[in-house]
Protein: Molybdopterin oxidoreductase family protein
Amino acid sequence: MTATDPATTPGQPVPLDPSLAPPGTRNFRDAGGIPADRWHADQNGETLVPTHCCFCGVQCGMYLRVDRGGKVFGVEPRNHDINRMRLCPKGINAYQQVNHPDRLTAPLMRRNRDEEFREVSWDEALDHTVAEIRRIQGEYGNDAFGLLGGASLYSEKTYLVGKFARVALKTRHVDYNGRLCMVSAAGANKLAFGIDRAGNPFSDILLTDCLLIAGSNVGECFPVMTQYLWGARDRGATLIVVDPRETAIARTADIHVALKPGTDSAFFNAVLHVVVAEGLTDEAYLAAHATGWEEVRKTVADYPPARSARICGVPEEQIVQVARMFAGAGKAMAWHARGVEHHSQGVENCLSIINLCAATGNIGRPGAGYGTITGQGNGQGGREHGQKSDLLPGGRSITNPEHRRQICEIWGIDESELPPAGTSMMEMVWQMQRKEIRGLVGICNNPFVSLPHYATVKDGYDTLQFHAQFDFFLSETAANAHVVFPVTVWAEDEGVMANAEARVVKHNKAQEPPAGVRTDTWVICELARRLGAGDKFDFPDSRSVFEELRVASAGTVNDYYGITYERLEETGGIAWPCPSTDHPGTPRLFEDGRTYHPDGTIHLQVVEWHPPMDPYSEEYPLSLTTGRTVAHFLSGNQTRRLGALVEQTPRPWVEVHPSHGFRNGDPVRVVTRRGSEVFPALVTEAIRPDTVFVPYHWPVPTAANALTIDALDPRSKIPEYKVCAARIEAAPHIDEVPAPPTAPGHQAYPETQVSRTDPLPPTSPQGRGTAERS
Structure:
């Protein structure tokens, strides 16, 4: 602080005229307080580094505050056109990860899981990892080793993950945790449109006349996106929310459809049935721009409102209202998220919404279209450039001979060296159990919390002969590994991400990493060098990787060639495809009426509803559904150590309807066919009586995903997180929330531990409040 009055000495009483002082301020001033108007803030040497949040697919702009010593110490919102000065609780606290006392700062290693971790040199950790890779592959074949990446990595790193697996490890087994995110939407988009991304930018929401949000708790999972919903409402748009819970957004909707979990496609087929029956389809649009419409029309004829109302547990008249409201709007949009996609028929659920949009002509116009809200920061970009088991860079298919030839030419390898398609993340765990995969490297993921059916996951990982994990905190999964590589957080490196709009944005480096920490890029390239593939991984930094990524994507549907770091700095983001450096990008798809299929049409798909994979019974009569909270992110490894977020939401709870007779805080045991856990009750009328909800950010013994089923969608291979059969019962005590794992010589950060033991659920952020029972 710098005094503007040289006569004032800090720390000394300030003379004042009592007649000029507000009542009650004399004691404060005499104790050494200084009048605010005589001082101004002056943080000498402070730098504001423009970047983006590390969390969800909105990708809010922010400034990281860096002190004169080069350390990140705070955050400021940025007037980026994505978020316009707004940040959510996670974004406000994200900077605290950077210099957190729990950061890993040296490689950890042990020869077997019975030993304690010890800190080792980078050479020892790398040499041991390479030796284990060679041993396992030499004994069991290349495909006995696998690699799992993550959708919170920069796109440059996801490109390296896929290339490293196929060129250095020479294995077909590579996938990523975006498999747990929006691959059902990706599959539906590719089938219908020939391209995998949202059709419209967020700004189009402001222009719509009717907005449909399905399976997305926008207010908690994507809080800053709420501004677009309110902007649409301000200009008169109607709002339809389809969700089993009355979320904060649902509470304000014109229509809230509280359907039974697992019945989405039955509902949307019935809506389309009404649209057809009442003559509300856009037949001219369908004739000019779609194929498969007659087959779809015949199918939805079998879903009259009365039938679907029984399946979905909603009023028949509500289905009719939704149909008239959506089809009768001049411009209508539909956005959805995991609530629609996390199902054994997730692809079909998404297709049923696409069918509705196309049948009403709501595709490719300002304020009219379709999109998916990505969960992870790089949920969109993370699957575009090769870490998904069936894709090569640029969204190329690994089964397409021409696509394989193109990538082999860029990578400088023979076509015979490129492995075939691998399996999905959950299938890889099953292969671990069967000892088909015996070694694994994991990067930017925490399957011990994020994958369903924890007992199966733990067994699969325990069966591995060798497991290495990259992370900046010791996650529950890393704590089970043989080697842990300490890597940078997002603020210690630069790179790009693609948000839910497919807008590519640039993250900038704000500080140097701690001594002993390396970038993911450095570790991947160093492992490749020691495996004998160093000539294919001569990348000193992210920028050099991005230049190869641009070339590798050129001419594809996912074309990044025209995007450069310099253009991103200048524009604030460019939507792909962007084929040349003078191309403005493509924020809105299908404006010319053409899709990315060779014939240019929308390929409408027939959808039939089928029940969830976990059958209901007298023993398991309820639906368990899971989701996120505003204070935490995914597996919680990034947020369960940040004090303000832990204080806000210290533990999971079970949301139950008052009809079950529990009071807030009562211990309630949730039982499924996979096991049981006890949570405090949050009693609310904002959930269906036949449904219970548990947030999933915590590990066992408070892990929602210890209870969920590992059934998969047959096309997208996404797990059915959003519905499984369950029952609830009274219990004697609540299961305790474990502290996050810590490295040797570290203790759990005390500021984040106190509130974990609070036995009560947090105050309900959604719904109509809580209901007590005397």
Observations:
- The two ends are 55 Å apart (CA to CA).
